């Protein structure tokens, strides 16, 4: 009897491993880019024609902001209507398309003046995303010096058009050929942009699993400013069973494995280079039974949190201990339906993993997929919100002393003597009214501790 129990357990684990993922599945970035190829850019992202673009403004000294990086992808088909800028540090505008010869294709209306100006006014950095999803084209681009240099110059110009504060490279495709060259490409690109656009940040959209050990992930982390780990698509359209999109635990591959095994060397030595990406989307299957991880009869497509949260309350949310993720099910009269997704509880556990291992922060695919619902913003606020730069530390050395008093007196100009965006003196603007006056000086005296 005991032997039969062991055999059953082994078969169950084997089924989970087989059903989970094939080698290097297409990510949601690729899938949705193809689905929305003909979708126009959302009007609320674009702003008014001819509207001037504002530079990044430092957050007011006492303004609340995230205590770690919160990096959100904003696809051109999404909306900025419900963004909480006080809970974001980076908005990654997805995307401008890249060609194999280094020229740029569809930029989807870039620059998105409305988003850029609102983000910059709130101290949130704008990152331009460059996409290429064909393995052969990636290889051609990154191994041909002429094409590579064309891309460097063209993407720099495109960043300048929208006053972008950084660049995210989202190159994806099967095979190992281009991955053997991507680190040197990223190293050259990062050095180029650091020299040409001082202060710019260069990141890469990296895999959750190092399939066939084709990636040198420590080398990739060393070649740029950071890796956004696409911590999702562990199950999907290819799966033979239903299952979690981003399991924290359980099975052969999961988010814990991603951070502690796939990226082990980076997590141990350079955790500040890693941003753990999480999904604001799920998956919908028709299944043969109502059981968790049932065999599937068809895949109906991705789902969005703004639908899944209320639907899970209607049908009854089920928590799977194995993966530490939620799902729900219903019978439509003919078939069982299952949706596996992430909610505030499951995302909070992933955030804990990032916090516990001192990662640079977290991010999501994608902003807007929560609609007007508050739950996911509330979770970010609970785990990352509430930090401030501290009043009046104008030289950024962690205290308020004579140097800060001198700088403050230099900037003291009285009411309504406002300063331009990005001016050093805005560091002394404690009440956020764009001037440094006696109200700010009074706050300086309160905080002055030497």
Question: Which labels suit this protein?
Answer:
450 residues, alpha/beta, TIM Barrel, 8-stranded parallel barrel, 5-stranded antiparallel beta sheet
Describe this structure in words.
By secondary structure, the protein is α/β, with parallel strands linked by helices. The protein folds into two domains: 2-384, Glycosidases (TIM Barrel); 402-447, no CATH class. 35% of the residues lie in helices and 18% in strands. It has helices at residues 2-20, 28-35, 43-46, 113-121, 135-143, 145-161, 182-196, 217-223, 255-262, 264-269, 305-315, 344-356, 375-384, 402-411, 438-447; strands at residues 69-75, 90-97, 125-132, 166-171, 201-206, 226-230, 274-279, 281-287, 296-304, 318-320, 325-331, 336-340, 361-365.
Task: Map the helices and strands.
Elements: H1 2-20, H2 28-35, H3 43-46, E1 69-75, E2 90-97, H4 113-121, E3 125-132, H5 135-143, H6 145-161, E4 166-171, H7 182-196, E5 201-206, H8 217-223, E6 226-230, H9 255-262, H10 264-269, E7 274-279, E8 281-287, E9 296-304, H11 305-315, E10 318-320, E11 325-331, E12 336-340, H12 344-356, E13 361-365, H13 375-384, H14 402-411, H15 438-447
Parallel strand pairs: 1-2, 1-13, 2-3, 3-4, 4-5, 5-6, 6-7, 7-13
Antiparallel strand pairs: 8-9, 8-12, 10-11, 11-12
Helix pairs in contact: 5-6, 7-8, 12-13
């Amino acid at each position: 009897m005991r032997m039969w129990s062991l055999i059953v357990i082994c078969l169950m684990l084997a089924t989970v491993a087989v059903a989970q993922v094939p080698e290097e599945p297409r990510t949601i970035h690729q899938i949705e880019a193809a689905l929305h190829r003909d979708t126009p850019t959302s009007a609320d992202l674009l702003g008014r024609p001819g509207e001037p673009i504002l530079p990044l403004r430092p957050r007011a000294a006492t303004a609340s902001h995230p205590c770690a990086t919160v990096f959100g992808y904003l696809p051109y088909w999404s909306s900025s209507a419900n963004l909480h800028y006080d809970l974001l540090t980076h908005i990654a505008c997805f995307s401008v398309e890249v060609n194999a010869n280094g020229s740029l294709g569809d930029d989807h209306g870039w620059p998105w003046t409305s988003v850029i100006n609102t983000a910059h006014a709130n101290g949130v950095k704008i990152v331009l995303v460059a996409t290429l999803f064909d393995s052969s084209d990636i290889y051609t681009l990154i191994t041909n010096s002429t094409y590579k240099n064309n891309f460097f110059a063209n993407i720099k110009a495109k960043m300048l058009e929208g006053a972008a504060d950084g660049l995210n490279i989202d190159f994806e495709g099967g095979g190992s050929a281009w991955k053997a060259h991507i680190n040197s490409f990223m190293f050259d690109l990062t050095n180029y942009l650091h020299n040409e656009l001082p202060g710019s940040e260069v990141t890469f959209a990296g895999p959750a699993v190092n399939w066939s050990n084709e990636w040198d992930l420590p080398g990739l982390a060393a070649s740029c400013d950071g890796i956004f780990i696409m911590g999702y698509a562990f199950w999907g359209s290819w799966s033979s069973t239903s299952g979690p999109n981003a399991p924290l635990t359980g099975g052969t591959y999961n988010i814990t494995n991603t951070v502690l095994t796939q990226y082990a060397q980076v997590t141990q030595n350079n955790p500040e280079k890693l941003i753990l990406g999480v999904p604001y989307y799920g998956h919908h299957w028709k299944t043969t039974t109502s059981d968790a991880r049932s065999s599937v009869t068809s895949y109906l497509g991705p789902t969005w949190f703004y639908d899944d949260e209320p639907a899970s309350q209607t049908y009854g949310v089920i928590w799977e201990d194995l993966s530490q993720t939620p799902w729900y099910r219903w019978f439509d009269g003919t078939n069982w339906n299952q949706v596996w997704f992430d909610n505030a509880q499951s995302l909070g556990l992933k955030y804990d993993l990032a916090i516990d291992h001192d990662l640079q922060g977290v991010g999501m695919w994608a902003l807007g997929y929560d609609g007007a619902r508050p739950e996911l913003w509330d979770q970010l606020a609970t785990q990352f919100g509430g930090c401030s730069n501290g009043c009046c530390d104008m030289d950024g050395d962690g205290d308020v002393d004579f140097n800060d008093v001198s700088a403050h007196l230099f900037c003291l100009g009285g009411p309504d003597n406002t300063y331009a965006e990005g001016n050093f003196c805005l560091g002394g603007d404690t009440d956020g009214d764009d001037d440094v006056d006696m109200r700010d000086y009074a706050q300086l005296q309160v905080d002055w501790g030497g």
